[in-house]
Amino acid sequence: MTLRQNTTQTLGRMRTKPTLAAAAALGMLTLAACGGPVEASGDVRMGAADGAATRVVARDNEFEPTTLELPSGSKVTIEVVNEGHQAHNLVIDDITLSTGTLEPGQVATATLTVPDAPVTYYCSFHPGMEGRLKPVSG
Ligand SMILES: [Cu+2]
């Protein structure tokens, strides 16, 4: 079995765990928000996207852009780049997504399905560092 197959299967199992596990993971994220590293959750991997992706830049301390308009219900790839001098992350509670801690210069790629209603993305380290993912009719 190749490493890639193994990783895919592991992710598949993680997605099927009950909601309780997700709630516990969120609890751990909250506890870790005081400056320690936070775990990634959802369909996230380190590194740049292989193909087309929507780019979100994290700076000290804001996201660019602060509004992302993407087609409702579509599967999208979002590349999160930390161009700041501090560690940041990008978290969307509503869909249990987190890039985990991104040190300066690091990039994470997240794949997600755009929800039907607007959701907030934020950095758990920096209150007020946030943006809005807005679904638009595809
Ligand atoms: Cu931050």
Give an overview of the whole structure.
With 138 residues, the protein is an alpha+beta fold. The protein has a single domain (3-136), classed as Immunoglobulin-like. Helices cover 19% and strands 34% of the residues. A five-stranded mixed sheet has the order 1-8-5-2-3, with no helix packed on it. Strands 4-10-9 form a three-stranded mixed sheet, with no helix packed on it. A hairpin with a 7-residue loop joins strand 9 (119-122) and strand 10. The termini are far apart. Bound molecules: copper (II) ion (CU). Copper (II) ion is lined by residues 61, 88, 123, 125-126, 129.
How many structural domains are formed by the residues?
1
What's the total number of strands? 10
Span between N and C termini?
38 Å
| Spans where pLDDT lies below 50 across 5 or more residues | 1-18, 29-34
What is the structural class? alpha+beta
What oligomeric state is this?
A: single chain
CATH architecture: Sandwich
What is the averaged pLDDT score? 84
CATH class: Mainly Beta
Q: Please state how the strands of the largest beta sheet are arranged side by side.
A: 1-8-5-2-3
Helix content: 10-25%
